[in-house]
Design goal:
Shape: elongated
Number of helices: 24
Radius of gyration: 34 Å
Number of strands: 20
Strand order of the largest sheet: 3-4-9-6-8-7
Helix content: 40-55%
Structural class: alpha+beta
């Protein structure tokens, strides 16, 4: 008598034969599992890598925990700030705006200038020196230049820059190229879109910058680091109290710092996507495994009875099929882990370039591999457990007896007209569909899941385009935007109107503010618009103009959602400029914006609330396209101008941003969704072929041609695909909201809705996948060995 070891080795050999026999289906399912694991490993690796790199970079170069801008405060206040409980270190510095002239470029470039201590390294917000050296002691004409800006304009060590600081034009020589954790995301103050070519950062010796801004012995920004475990809110309140008399502009925490906020939003988007998308692939894989194993158990019913009759226990036989399921899942998980590491390393370079990180090493936490393998095995178990229960329950006597014929008396018979209209192969296809509604519906759900994921990705890609079209076509109708260093009298708008090529000028007033509703708050700005604004508009969901109310405030939908507030409610607005009043305003309307989280008021109402009538901070202009050079030349000579932005440049920068980082991920997801859709369709055809191979061989023996036999098989696939299309539309519509939420950030919100073009393309992709998959299966039908197929396998 054979030992139990011999018995198990026999089952192992059978396992290998079974794997080889269903290699097509097993491979397709393994690919589905692999994609789910790949996404999880890649995204979890990117998340952990970005978080660790950010933490290391911040710590190594001592990025501040609190930023406290102020109009002018004496150096002695630094010691008082250091005495605040919870504060570990304090650094005072001078910073401000500037305009940089670039040779061969008409328009001026906005810049931010920062001071560096002459006799030591900064205690906080140090810089990473990529090339060259720091400005030498006593040299007021030497600068460090931000690396991303230098690369955008091909500037190198020794080049000369011309910049206007506080109305005075100066010339500087570049002695060093630097990077900073403070400027991972290079956005000019007051703007939303980063653009390396349109925003520069210059670091000068403190003495030079103090003289330029008339801040000798003073600072206009304090940087604070906190002790471990210190609470931020009490420190912010204490800093504001100390700096209020010196024109404090409102201290804020690192989480509200522009660069850090956008990087945090990127990480949140990856986290949301990693939680939402991989489970979809695992669910599809579980479903496909269920179909494959159920078919095998049904086809091998008599073999199971024989195996048990030879002494194999229920547990051993069930374990045999369990090993089959787990082997497929483990193969997919291994492939996914390797693919995830490869894809993650490829994306790491993109993220390093996007966020100007001096280093980014892609590292996957071992727990990500473990969780990927565990989830794939769990999906396999879920897919096969119900079938394995059937294996366990079969007794040899029952298993070796042919199953009772199915009762089709209630499944619906074909009418006489259908029998007349349909030929014999068509009637066979229709009968099979009517007699197996559960299996047909299950196959349709599997294909619909792939189509739903593809259509959701297509919808999101269209949503990215909508952000650009709405923001720069519907809301912003200007050609050029101008901002000032400080609030200017409204007559400045008339001066702008007389510049070369200017057709129309529309002034605005923007003030920094913290908006609060109960425990919810948002640090942003309030923008005052003129009545019947046309160049920079507030619009509703139908893109119709929103008239600025005589009282109250208009909030963007994203801001209203953040604050948990609606029209008619009251919001508290803490203005961070001037006398810093706290305004209690009624929310008059909700505006539809897809970029940022703005708030709007009538410009006169805003000025009146601030006690500063007739003030503006910038203007939007419509300009004759042929007059750009003359206009920009004139603006360079206006001392109060802090920045000039062309709308076309801003749009191009926004598109570039969307095509990088999270934008890159949407293309990856769309490609993966397309591959998965094909895999699901092909796998469904393979499963159907495996189930009907003996029937098709019998039909061939009975005189059916290869074409008729293929029609019977592929006709069923066609019906399944047709059923899957409307289901896929419904699934895609729901998934589009989930995927769009994952890609939306604090910078832009991806709109969702029913997009016929996206669902049409996804549907055509499913049909194309069905045609290709059907052609591949038809080739297998043509190669079927009729004698071998009709033999009963023992």
């Amino acid at each position: 008598m054979r030992s139990s070891g011999d018995l198990m080795r026999a089952l192992d050999r059978k396992l290998l034969r079974d794997m080889w026999r269903i290699k097509g289906q097993a491979g397709a399912i393994a690919v589905v599992v692999a994609v789910g694991v790949l996404l999880q490993v890649m995204m979890s690796g990117m998340i952990s890598s970005l978080e660790e790199t950010r933490a290391t970079y911040y710590e190594r170069y001592r990025l501040a925990d609190v930023f406290a801008p102020v109009t002018r405060a004496p150096q002695k206040m630094l010691s008082r700030l250091a005495d605040i409980p919870g504060v570990a270190a304090v650094e005072g510095r001078v910073q401000g705006g500037a305009l940089v002239d670039i040779a061969g470029q008409d328009w001026p470039v906005r810049a931010q200038v920062m001071s560096l201590p002459e006799w030591r390294d900064p205690w906080l917000n140090d810089v990473y020196l990529s090339e060259g050296q720091r400005p030498r002691i006593g040299r007021t004409d030497e600068v460090l230049l931000l690396r991303s800006f230098a690369q955008a304009h091909d500037l190198v060590l020794g080049d000369v820059l011309s910049a206007t600081l506080y109305g005075s034009k100066r010339t500087f020589r570049i002695v060093g190229i630097a990077q900073s954790p403070e400027f991972l995301f290079t956005t000019a103050p007051g703007e939303l879109v980063p653009d390396d070519a349109r925003f520069a950062v210059l670091w000068l010796n403190a003495e030079a910058l103090e003289a330029a801004f008339d801040l000798k012995g003073a600072f206009n920004e304090a940087l604070l680091s906190l002790e471990r475990g210190a609470e931020v809110a009490p420190v912010l309140a204490a800093v504001d109290a100390l700096l209020d008399r010196y024109g404090g502009l409102g201290a804020y925490a690192l989480e509200d710092q522009v660069s850090n906020r956008f990087l945090s939003e990127e990480i949140k988007g990856l986290q949301a996507t990693s939680k939402a998308v991989p489970p979809i692939f695992m669910a599809v894989a579980a479903f496909l495994l269920y179909i494959v194993v159920r078919r095998m158990v049904s086809a091998e019913r008599e073999q199971i009875g024989l195996i048990k009759a030879f002494g194999y226990t229920d547990t051993e036989v069930s374990l045999h099929y369990f090993q089959l399921v787990v082997s497929i899942a483990l193969a997919g998980a291994a492939l996914g882990c390797l693919g995830g590491v490869w894809a993650g390393r490829a994306l790491a370079g993109l993220y390093q370039a996007l966020y100007h990180l001096p280093f980014l090493v892609f590292r996957v936490d071992p727990s990500s591999f473990a969780s990927g393998v565990l989830i794939s095995v769990l999906a396999a178990v879920v897919g096969g457990v119900s079938v394995l229960r059937q294996v366990f329950a079969l007794t040899p006597a029952v298993a070796m007896r042919p199953p009772a014929p199915s009762d089709y008396s209630k499944s619906g018979a074909l009418t006489a007209s259908l029998k007349t209209w349909l030929d014999q192969p068509s009637r066979m296809v229709l009968r099979r569909v009517l007699r197996n509604p559960g299996r047909i519906f299950g196959a349709a759900i599997g294909i619909a899941a792939g189509m739903g994921l593809s259509s959701a990705q297509m919808s999101v890609m269209s949503g990215f385009n909508d952000v650009l079209d709405t923001t720069y076509g519907v809301i912003d109708r200007s050609d050029v935007a101008v901002t000032f260093f400080e609030q200017m009298p409204d007559k400045t708008a008339f001066d702008l109107a007389h510049l070369p090529g200017v057709i129309e000028v529309e002034p605005i007033r923007a003030v920094g503010a913290v908006l609060r509703n109960g425990t919810e708050s948002y640090r942003g700005s309030v923008t005052g618009l003129v009545e019947n604004a046309q160049l920079n508009r507030a619009v509703d969901a139908d893109h119709a103009d929103i008239a600025m109310p005589d009282s109250g405030i208009v909030l963007a939908k994203s801001l209203a959602d953040t604050l948990g507030i609606g029209a008619g409610d009251t919001v508290s607005v803490e203005v961070l400029e001037g006398r810093r009043p706290i305004l209690e305003l009624r929310v008059a309307r909700i505006a539809e914006t897809l970029m940022g989280a703005p708030a709007f008021m009538h410009i006169e109402v805003l000025n009146r609330a601030l006690g500063e009538p007739g003030r503006i901070s910038g203007a939007f202009m419509r300009v004759d396209a042929g007059a750009y050079p003359a206009l920009f030349a004139a603006l360079k000579d206006v001392p109060s101008v802090a920045g000039v932005t062309r709308k076309n440049d801003a749009r191009a920068a926004m598109k570039k941003l969307m095509d990088e980082g999270a934008g890159t991920m949407r293309y990856v997801m769309a490609l993966i969704a397309g591959v998965i859709t094909f895999g699901i369709v092909y796998n469904s055809a393979r499963i159907s072929f495996g189930e009907q191979s003996r029937d098709l061989a019998s039909l061939r023996v009975m005189g059916f041609t290869q074409g008729e036999a293929a029609f019977i098989l592929l006709g069923e696939l066609a019906i399944v695909v047709l059923l899957a299309l409307p289901i896929g539309v419904l699934l895609g519509y729901g998934l589009s909201y989930l995927v769009a939420a994952g890609f939306s950030t604090d910078l832009y919100q991806i709109p969702t809705g029913f997009r016929p073009d996206a669902f049409g393309v996804a549907g055509l992709a499913v049909v194309a996948a069905a045609l290709i998959g059907g052609w591949l299966v038809k080739r297998e039908i043509e190669r079927v060995d009729l004698v071998a197929t009709l033999k009963t396998r023992e």
